[in-house]
């Protein structure tokens, strides 16, 4: 990407595309019911960010309770949701930044800083949830934090990595814009 510059049409949209993938993963984590699941038969418990469901036996009905009745449930949901909203804002700002013909590198660095703030909020929600869930809610059987919780962590890791990339990209402004003379390592005899 640095070799051809950000004006190279295929490389220009890689960062907004990766942010878009992070937004999709965040939506999956917010809507997914697989934050916590029973690991072995009979499957008696499953939880999302919003509710905890139990089943007394294999063929019984699931009974669900809202995690919003707990202060920690509201805190986990709120902090993860704030991190997700900041990620969506960064995605919109990245589309605007890369759609402009002349890149504003300070604007790009600001997106990177905002991504770090989003990562902090997401990680706070992802840490509050398992710590308080396992200490305040009775769990029967063997349980595991599952696929939707993993999508939440993937979103947080993408926010951190893309934050570094957005912050470091302006350091290579001359190379990206093609303002550097090529260096030749050939010497004449």
Automatic annotation (TrEMBL):
InterPro entries given in the database record: P53_induced, PMP22/EMP/MP20/Claudin
Protein topology in the membrane: Multi-pass membrane protein
Subcellular location: Cell junction, Desmosome; Cell membrane; Cytoplasm
Predominant place of localization: other
GO biological process: apoptotic process; cell-cell adhesion
Gene Ontology CC terms, in alphabetical order: cytoplasm; desmosome; plasma membrane
Coiled coil: none
UniProt keyword terms in alphabetical order: Apoptosis, Cell adhesion, Cell junction, Cell membrane, Cytoplasm, Membrane, Transmembrane, Transmembrane helix
Superkingdom of the organism of origin: Eukaryota
TM region positions: 12-36, 77-100, 107-131, 151-172
Family classification: Belongs to the TMEM47 family.
Name of the featured protein: p53 apoptosis effector related to PMP-22
UniProt organism field: Pteruthius melanotis
